[in-house]
């Protein structure tokens, strides 16, 4: 298993109200010729969660950031074929992570949105975007997730996260308004991309 976790922008995370939620080492997959192990750290936007609880009493994970260092064995330099394999498997794993964290109806976004995100990240990352739905009691919230994989220091880095984008349904106007005021999809997107770019 890899020993090195990704280097994340801890100051920016702390200033933004993020809290470390999970740190783990796993075997991501074992293909015919290579195995890929991951050292992963997950952060949650605790400030957003606390605000929503205070204003609506709805308590769940709304927004997270994840970074994984993916180590390939036997050690080999990145190639187009290997990068494609690692990215495909990592993206599939990220979609499963969304489901495990309570996001429903996970599906890929259209290619144009992916292209604009690749341009925003400004590197050679392989990017996948996902739309999903968060449900809690009578509340439904649309969400967007992003995952990017890029070669780094003889290994690969997966960075990504998810955030709410709009209220789909709410039991009353007060809840609808409180959630709408708490959610800033453009700001969430920009902060996520900033964290993704700053992770090594």
TrEMBL record:
Gene source species: Halobaculum saliterrae
Pfam families linked to this entry: DUF6517 (PF20127)
InterPro entries: DUF6517
Protein's name in the database: Uncharacterized protein
Taxonomic lineage: Archaea, Methanobacteriati, Methanobacteriota, Stenosarchaea group, Halobacteria
